[in-house]
Design a protein that fits this description.
- It is elongated, with a radius of gyration of 33 Å.
- By secondary structure, the chain is an alpha+beta fold.
- It has 2 domains: about 90 residues, no CATH class; about 120 residues, no CATH class.
- The protein is built from 8 helices and 5 strands, in the order ααααβββαααββα.
- The protein has a 5-stranded antiparallel β-sheet.
- The relative contact order is 0.10.
Length: about 260
């Protein structure tokens, strides 16, 4: 027969001992938590949708449509305003917001530049119903009959036209040069250089062509139920390149009537 296990009997009058001493605070967890909190705060405020507007943003067709729509909406609920007054108010708020954001992030700018982590824009923040569609056209100086030659479309985005030109202009590195140019009020200097290069390649491939035109056709993209009515409503950043000016020679098999004339 096994004996019962012995157990110590604690007297009810016995007082508990002192609490154990807390573990010493290690510095690295505190530093790591502070670094993580700092990174989240800096990049969180950088990525936040600050109302950063200026007068240049209001030159877009989309801005005019939105101002008209919001002015009508606010007026319908009893807030008396006009598109012009609303635009002035938005620009004032945008300037204050920009100054505040710059002041908050000024101490961190050197580190952001050093690490290359200062990106602060939103990707596809809003759809633009007036996108620019890149189109490349060319023509000889004169038709075989001696009349003004019609334009020949060599490329029209996306993916229509000469295969080699489609491959060139839709290459991801080349697209990075012009992809947002069609949506901007002003084209950058790289747009002009790209036009020069594309025209040189076209002239080299077709010796009879005398003029190359690159432009963005401004489309009006309509959502359902009006989808399918998309149409060209304008032209933006039109550039003409003449063979005589770019290469210094006349097209083969064509007259020189193009020189000095408007296409």
């Amino acid at each position: 027969m096994r004996p019962w296990p012995s157990c110590d009997v604690v007297s009810p009058s016995a007082e508990p001992g002192p609490d154990p001493a807390p573990a010493p605070l290690r510095p690295w967890p505190v530093i790591r938590a502070a670094l993580i909190a700092g990174v989240l705060w800096v990049h969180g405020t950088l990525a936040a949708p600050w109302p950063d507007l200026d007068g240049g943003d209001l030159r877009y067709d989309l801005a005019d449509e939105e101002l008209q729509r919001w002015a009508a909406t606010l007026s319908a609920v009893g807030i008396d305003t006009t598109p012009r007054r609303l635009a002035d108010r938005l620009v004032a708020v945008g300037r204050w917001s920009r100054r505040t954001q710059r002041a908050l992030h000024r101490p961190f700018r050197p580190l952001l530049r050093l690490t290359g982590t200062g990106q602060a824009w939103g990707l596809f923040a809003f759809p633009d119903p007036h996108p620019g569609r890149l189109t490349v056209r060319a023509r000889p100086a004169k038709s075989p009959a001696g009349d003004a030659a019609p334009w020949r479309v060599l490329y029209r985005a996306p993916g229509a036209g000469e295969a080699w030109l489609v491959d060139l202009l839709e290459n991801r590195k080349v697209r990075g040069i012009y992809d947002d140019t069609g949506d901007r009020p002003r084209a950058g200097f790289l747009w002009n250089r790209l036009c020069d290069e594309v025209a040189r390649r076209i002239f080299a491939r077709w010796p009879d062509l005398s003029v190359v035109e690159l432009r963005f056709e401004v489309m009006h993209v309509t959502p359902p139920p009006a989808a399918g009515r998309n149409e060209v409503v304008g032209v933006r950043h039109r550039r003409l390149r003449r063979r005589s000016a770019l290469l210094g020679d006349a097209p083969r098999g064509a007259g020189t009537g193009e020189a000095g004339g408007a296409p």
